[in-house]
Amino acid sequence: MAPREDKPKNRTYSAAQPTTESASATAFGRQLLGRLTHEDLDRAHDRWRVAQARSQGRGALSLQSLRLFWLLVGPGVLVFLGENDAPSMLSYAATGARYGIGFFAPFFILTFAMGFIVQEMTLRLGAVTHRGHAELIFDRFGRFWGLFSMGDLVLGNFLTLVAEFIGVRAGLSFFGVKPEVAIGSALLLVLAVITTGRYWTWERITMGLAICNCVFIPAALLAHPDWAELGRALATWKPFPRGDSGEIVLLVLSTIGATVTPWMLFFQQSAVVDKGMQPRDIPAGRADTLAGAAIAAVVAIAALLATAPLFRHGISAADFQAAQFAQALQPWIGHAGAALFALGILEAGLVAIITISTSSAYAFGEVFGTAHSLNRPFREGWPFYAILLGSACAAAGLVLIPHAPLEFIILVVNVIAVLAMPPALAFLLMLANDAELMGEHANNFWQNAAGVIVTVMLIVAGVGFGITTVFPGILAR
Amino acid sequence: MEKSTNPKKPDLSNPELVLSLLEADQVVAAKQGSRFGRKKLSLRTRVILWGLRIYLVIMLVIVAISVLRALHGGH
């Protein structure tokens, strides 16, 4: 395709000059009359509702202001609750079972704060440029770097999807459901959700599923946690975990990988674009992202609290998988609590399957120039839906293969996510600082400082993992 | 924004109304017809990108070593 600067008439809507002008107000926009698609109509309908709520809102807590927030909430909540996926929830549970209430409780909050810093940039990028993350990388950095970025995404997403189906299988096994039925049901759910042909409907259904992540909270309450101990841990970050240093570093890395992963960058930016958000929606988008991070952090701590009884009673959970956690917890949180835990793992896997496969589909559509919107009916956007379903089916298929190396995948999926983040963050920071794209919405000093700190922390964590792997026992006390 | 005759539902058959609700570069036809230009990468930027790429490759090798140790240690 010809570069933008070869078409002088495009200058009126160049993202280098973020505009709040509507399409009808520009000469170029009026040329688009008669070329509108179903996707444009759906998006315009969503914008109309936002405009109505915005024009009627009076005060931060008025009914219409709350309605405005309700209309704009979505991508942030989905990305964080989608990232509280099966391997993540198991990582959180493992910290509680291995080390009890201590260092990891405030550490979860730190990792979600890191996640918020990163995701807020993707929100701004999507709202200002109206382009997805993959598309921007290919446009601005070229095919060579774009393919590297896509390669990281494809590998990470596939491995993560496999882990999600493992979680679905394990969660339903607690209730005696056979693996084939569990996996097939998950695929049918994905199919059902995407047949809406409408981003708004897909978003609301997926959010309804995602909020069920909160089932870990009653499971935690049934564990009768020591609230004073939790308070001390949040205030002092103690006690520090003791034991094998390699295992501790691996768990730290898994925990970070449970909150900041490459697919989140691609998903939230594309979802913001598909939702039709505009620069003036950025404050509401920040609130949406903050809400998602806060809810996910609370649920992560709840998972830690729910499995803390295993630590208190000296139950070794070193090799536990999902269903084993639920079964092991029964004596202390009851059958209801254990069932809630298993349901939580199931939900975590289901929502992540939906969001991660959607992120893959968005990226492919953006890169190959095909339709890539949940506002497209199937017949118009079939490549997008084919990638979405195909990626889910490929992962599901691997889980059903006898003797497949599933244990390997569970071990590495969150670790690979952390390791792949620094290159992804480098592209994100460059895009967020790109004045030609972002104009007045480019990163300020503090946003850059925070982004660089997060990147450095991820590199340090990765190097720490590398050192303890190559030189086991180097950090032994 | 032009007002619809029905305050509860916009008249989406009116293309002018649709265009008034979207920014110019949100329209699908507009996005399909153009791309952002290539950004010139400085030498420092390319060094950073290559450095991070080499870091990732080294780390993936270490991950593979770690996993093989874990799998063999478990058997």
Describe this entry's structure for a reader:
- The complex is a heterodimer of chains A (477) and B (75).
- By secondary structure, chain A is mostly helical.
- Chain A has one domain: Orthogonal Bundle (Hydantoin permease), CATH 1.10.4160.
- Helices cover 73% and strands 0% of the residues of chain A.
- In chain A, helix 5 runs antiparallel to helix 15 and helix 12 crosses helix 17.
- The N and C termini of chain A lie far apart (59 Å).
- With 75 residues, chain B is mainly alpha-helical.
- Chain B is built from three helices and no strands.
- Chain B is elongated.
- The N terminus of chain B is likely disordered.
- Classes of the chains: A mainly alpha (477), B mainly alpha (75).
Short description:
The complex is a heterodimer of chains A (477) and B (75). Chain A has 477 residues and is an all-alpha fold.
Can you write the helix and strand succession of chain A as a string?
A: HHHHHHHHHHHHHHHHHHH
Identify the CATH class of chain A: Mainly Alpha
Distance between the termini of chain A: 59 Å
- Let me know the largest β-sheet of chain B: none
Largest sheet of chain A: none
Low-confidence stretches of chain B: 1-5
The gyration radius over C-alpha positions of chain A equals 22 Å
Runs of chain A with pLDDT <50, length 5+?
1-19
Structural class of chain A: mainly alpha
- The helix fraction of chain A, in percent, is over 70%
Total number of helices of chain A: 19
